[in-house]
Amino acid sequence: MSDELDPGVLAESFAEMLGAEWPREKAVAWSQAPALFAEPLWEQMAALGWTALTVPEAYGGLGLGMEAAAALHAALGAAAAPVPMLGTTLAAALLGAAGSEAQRTKLLPGLADGSSRAAVAQPGDMPIRLDGGSVGATIPDMIGAPAATLLFLRGERAGRPCWLALPADASGVSIAATALTDATRTLGTVTLDGVTVDEDALILAEDPAALDDHLLRVAAIAIAADAIGGGEAALAGTIDYMKVREQFGRVIGSFQALKHRVADHQAALVAARGLVEHAAGLPDDAPHALLDALSAKQHVTRTVAEIARDCIQLHGGVGFTAEFFPHIYLKRGKLNEVLFGTRTILLDRIADMLEAA
Fold first, then answer.
1. Edge-first strand listing for the sheet containing 187-195
2. What are phi and psi of 198, to 5 degrees?
3. What's the pTM?
4. From the DSSP assignment, how many helices (H) and strands (E) are in the chain?
5. Cβ atoms 186, 306 nearer than 8 A
6. d(Cα 154, Cα 162) in Å, to the nearest integer?
7. Region of residue 61 (phi > 0: left; psi between -120 and 50: alpha; otherwise: beta)
8. Separation CA 73–CA 52 (nearest Å)
9. Which terminus has fewer CB within 10 Å in the chain: N or C?
10. Which cofactors go with this protein (predicted)?
11. Within a 10 A sphere around the Cβ of 199, how many other Cβ atoms?
């Protein structure tokens, strides 16, 4: 089905729906009184098939690839939508790459129809030892965990890396939300206390390192896409404001110095979008697929965070208030910078890959 749906057409559809159902005013209101996630919006996304985007067709999905996923995550970033889509994208990738037929049949349909909400552990999380008996562990700062119904955690059995899939409401599992300045996402500390892990909960990859690289690539592209969408929306909204805000008897958008700043930001965003689209368009087995995804993530997230910060400045004093939107994109952008690898961590990985090439 991936040949039947053009990413550009999908992007327009995503933007149209979110513009109607989650306009800027809703994003601002949400930031002042957030909940775990916007359930009505999530249900609309599921009804439209968005949650099924990258789930294989055999399990109720659309079977699309990373170009479509990037288009969706960019639209969600532009809207600052408080929905746990990153977990669904990653869980679909994990199960598609390493899940057994029984695990796919059991778990993927729920991801596709939105009835399941997933949270997936990050690369730096310590693996849970699974060498017998009940399991006890603490996984801090897991993105999307407070809103999740299904947890995918890193494990280790007999010295071999693996994954385990656990219901968030399983006996012995508790999740404590972590305070977060970004009101559009959630973090949580997952605690396992005497949890029994059945054999059918274990996801065993033939090549665990290759699976980790695959998941890291998917995460990097999704997060970079979210960032570019947010950066473009923040700048567009700022330009709209500059067209009506007057100072010294003129709209501030007429001042040459401010025009130059906006032009520089626009040029940076065009280049950043090119990096995301290039990385998303590569097949997973392309020689530089992971390298290009990590390069895009570290560059785009930093660029967008800097632009979002300046958008606050370009608004003047009101840019620092909760009633205006720029702070939402700055906070979301700063979290994007550190999710699934800070810039320093990713640059170290990139350097190692280039040295080994």
1. 135-143, 187-195, 173-178
2. -75, 155
3. 0.96
4. 11, 10
5. no
6. 6
7. beta
8. 13
9. C
10. FAD
11. 6
Tokens coding 63: 């079977």
| Residues 6+ away with beta carbon under 8 Å from 259 | 253
pLDDT, tens digit, for every residue of 91-130? Answer: 999 999 999 999 999 999 999 999 999 999 999 888 999 9
- The radius of gyration of the chain from alpha carbons, rounded to an integer in Å, stands at 21
Tell me whether residue 209 is exposed, middle or buried, using C-beta atoms within 10 angstroms of its C-beta: 0 to 12, 13 to 18, 19 or more: exposed
Closest CA to 12 of 86, 68, 81, 87: 68
In the structure encoding, which two tokens stand for residue 189, read together?
């500390």
Domains identified in the chain and CATH numbers: 7-113 (1.10.540.10), 119-203 (2.40.110.10), 208-356 (1.20.140.10)
**pLDDT tens digits, one per residue of 218-272:** 999 999 999 999 999 999 999 999 998 878 889 888 789 999 999 999 999 999 9
| 213-231 CB burial, b ≥16 within 10 A, e <16 | bbbbbbbbbbbbbbbbbbb
Strand partners, 118: 150
Q: Of the candidates 59, 72, 96, which has an alpha carbon nearest to the alpha carbon of residue 15?
A: 72
Q: Which two tokens stand for residue 152?
A: 């995918």
